[in-house]
Amino acid sequence: MKILIIEDDREAATFLKKAFSEAGHTADIAMDGETGFAMADTGNYDVYVVDRMLPLKDGLSVIRELRGKGNTTPVLILSALGEVDDRVTGLRAGGDDYLIKPYAFSELLARVEALSRRSGSKDVETVYRVGDLELDRLSHTVTRAGEEITLQPREFRLLEYLMRHAGQVVTRTMLLENVWDYHFDPQTNVIDVHISRLRSKIEKGFDKPLLHTVRGAGYMIRAD
Amino acid sequence: MLRLSALMRTTAARLSALFILLFTACALVLVIYVSALSQRMIQAQTQDAVLEEVSTLTQVYERRGLTGLVRLIAVRARQPGANLYLITDHNGVILSGNVEMIEPGVLDIEGWTEQPFYYSRYGEASEVTDVHRAVALVARLPNQMILLVGRDLGEPEQYRSIVRRALTAALAMMGLGAALIWFFVGRKALKRIDSISEASRQIMGGDLTRRLPVSGSGDEFDRLSENLNAMLERIAALNEGLRQVSDNIAHDLKTPLTRLRNRAEAALAEQDDPQATREALERTIAESDQLIRTFNAILMISRLEAGYSAEATTKVDLAAIIADVVELYEPVAEEAGVALNADIAEGAEINGNRELIAQALSNIVDNAIKYSAGSNGKPEVTVSLARSGGAVRLTVTDNGPGIPESERHRATERFVRLEKSRSQPGSGLGLSLARAVMTFHQGELVLSDGKDGKGLAVAMVFPDAKNV
Q1: A127-221 in CATH: which number?
Q2: Whose CA, among A183, B263, B374, B456, lies 20 to 30 Å from A129?
Q3: How many angstroms separate the CA atoms of A48 and A30, rounded?
């Protein structure tokens, strides 16, 4: 995956570039809004990571102008601002996700990977499959090896989100955001308990684990 | 004189000057009008009197002849304040009357004299300066003799000069009064402003505890001072909050930062054992995540305490938020052996921020589950929603150990973790954040006893949107 980092803090940008490449991605750096816009405009990237406060042209203007030109590449906004409605402002400008500094790189990586896949074809698929686990989005049924598994509505949405991002790390805050539609940091292990409930439902009686815990990051569903 | 020039620049001085001008103009117009009117009236009266006199004299002449006329004039001319009387022959030779000398040419034109003329009476005029001014009617008797009856102008002129003097005196009084009022009122205003400026200078100089003077009269200066004082109060509170945040950051983040540093050092020391290094690094990351979390919470609390923002609020349904949070925490509660229930009497819509309310409620529920988990009997946490007396109360009640009344006010302070709870995980910011969220919503966070005096009830009290 090719990532464009528009960030004026040289050290932070260099760290991100290195960390992204260690995770198997390539990344370019733009140090100001003008350069960032020009580089993004070439259209050679899968995801833009844009800092909100940039020299020459601020991050939101860069995004607004890109969107104005019909560029639909996913954008993740990084911001040191954390006012109550900053997220809303950022998303309204055309951002797809919003992360407040300071953040953990694992969180950023998971979100960037989730974004890039979003632009893929998962939206139109009606059935998600991971190994012998199947989730039908239309009939709201889940089966494993042909056996139907009964899930609560919330558990269904949790599994749907995990399967939509199969093979990718999904963090706890991403789950809270996308499954519960809340954007705060869950204090304790609330999400973990929901996951372990779900896990017991889809894995009980089967040998092969599907839902894995990624230490220090989150969860991932994959068939191996 | 510097003070005087400062005085001249005050609004009071400018207003006084304007008023003096206006009053003077009004008074002038009034006086001119009155004097013109009275002069015309006096003139008309004089003419009437003279006309009547002439007609009487003419009648006397007709009835009694020249002798009668002369005799009557002689009588009348001697009366005090008498009119002017003069009879001459057709050549202008004086035959009778009380006029000794008259301005030449007056007798040549019949009818009213067009201009006042000079004359002098018998026995009066020894000097030319003693001449008087008068108006008169000149009539020709049938025998070609000339009869003049006139009235001295001394009286109306005296009257006019009295009016003029009165006007001058009145104007002088007015000017003096205005100047005095202007001086005292203006100086008083100037003094008040000076004291306000002086106080502001001291405040700008760094003495944030100083307040602007309030005289207690409730006038506009007082209102201004009161408002500015309220503003200073707010600034001081924000300043204090900021100072507290930095103090807390300094004191309370030092410990975890030191721990973080130690872990990193330990990881470095464990180089030979890859497994141990890995574990140490993972603990380091977990520690820094916790630090980030704490840091975000502190920032959020400060921002929330900075005040309400209408942009960040919409109509939100508290019942829906409760349902979400209870659903979110239900597995955790179950795992901890705590019964988590929602008791919603009716839905309640308020103006608020869904995210913030959910986060605050999560913190409270989280705490309630943690603290009631170990309690004797059947641990239970109930989230209830009720509307009463213009407020919506969202209450989380547990039957855990509770918080002694004396410690309750401290429980919502930043970083305060009551002694007994030191062993529990958490940043110690949960209730502080909840309180900040309530401040943001112009409501309050109320801690009280739980059911039957056991446990703790934490109420988020919102102003009812229906009453606003």
Answers
A1: 1.10.10.10
A2: A183
A3: 11
Query: Can you give A96-140 as a three-state secondary structure string?
Result: CEEEECCCCHHHHHHHHHHHHHHCCCCCCCCEEEECCEEEECCCC
pLDDT in tens, B127-171: 555 567 777 888 887 778 888 888 877 777 777 788 788 878 887
Taking the CB of residue B450, how many other CB atoms lie within 10 A of it? 22
CATH of the domain at B328: 3.30.565.10
Place of tokens 């609330």: A190
Is B229 exposed, middle or buried (CB count within 10 Å of its CB: 0-12, 13-18, 19+)?
middle
What is the average pLDDT across B84-97? 79
Give the phi and the psi of residue B303 in degrees, each rounded to 5. Answer: -65, -40
Domain total of chain B: 3
Which residue, among B93, B84, B142, B91, has the nearest Cα to B113 in the 3D structure?
A: B84
Q: Which of B305, B333, B366 is the last residue of a domain?
A: B305
Q: Which residues of B touch A187 (CB under 8 A)?
A: 362-363, 366, 426, 430
CA B410 – CA B413 distance, rounded (Å): 5
**What CATH number does domain A2-118 carry, 3.30.420.40, 3.30.1330.10, 3.40.50.2300, 3.90.1170.50?**
3.40.50.2300
B332·A189 Cβ contact <8 A? yes
Q: Of B315, B348, B27, which is closest to residue B172 (Cα–Cα)?
A: B27
pLDDT tens digits, residue range B420-463?
Answer: 443 344 556 778 888 888 888 888 888 887 777 778 888 888 88
B357 and B457, same domain (yes or no): yes
Q: Which domain holds residue B239?
A: 220-305
- To which H or E segment does residue B105 belong? none
Asked if A24 has any chain B CB less than 8 Å from its own CB, the reply is no
- Nearby residues of B253 by Cβ (< 8 Å), 6 or more positions away: B291, B294, B295
Are residues B297 and B335 located together in one domain of the fold?
no
| A200 touching B (Cβ < 8 Å) | no
The answer to whether domain A2-118 and domain A127-221 are alike in fold is: no
Q: Are A209 and A129 in contact (CB under 8 A)?
A: no
Q: Is A80 on the interface with B (CB under 8 A)?
A: no
In chain A, what are the domain boundaries? 2-118, 127-221
Nearest to B331 among A88, A197, A216 (CB): A197
Instruction: Please list every residue in chain A whose beta carbon sits closer than 8 Å to the beta carbon of residue B359.
Output: 182, 184
B245 shares its domain with B325: no
Same domain, B240 and B93: no
Contact A180, A69 (CB under 8 A): no
CB contact under 8 A, B304 and A84: yes
pLDDT at B9: 67
Length of chain A: 224
